[in-house]
Hints:
mainly alpha; single chain; 92 residues
Amino acid sequence: MTNAQYVLLYFMCINTLTFIVYGSDKYMAKNNLNRVPEFFLFALAGLFGSVGAWSAMYFFHHKTKQLKFVVGLPLIFLAQVAFVMYVLQNIN
């Protein structure tokens, strides 16, 4: 496997995991169970799972009324896009 394939595999795994965790938190919220801490939800997004988080937020209608998620997740995504573009432009 090439490095690019490893990176793509990581992106796929982290975003799938993030999507599942957001869905699980929605399930737990509806059933009055122990919830996933918001810090952990944001941490998953920050570890390049922002696409999965943003997708799950609207797919499950979860956290869509909380401004810190509605604004925060797109900002995390934009920061990650900027970071990836910077890295790609500075590769030897």
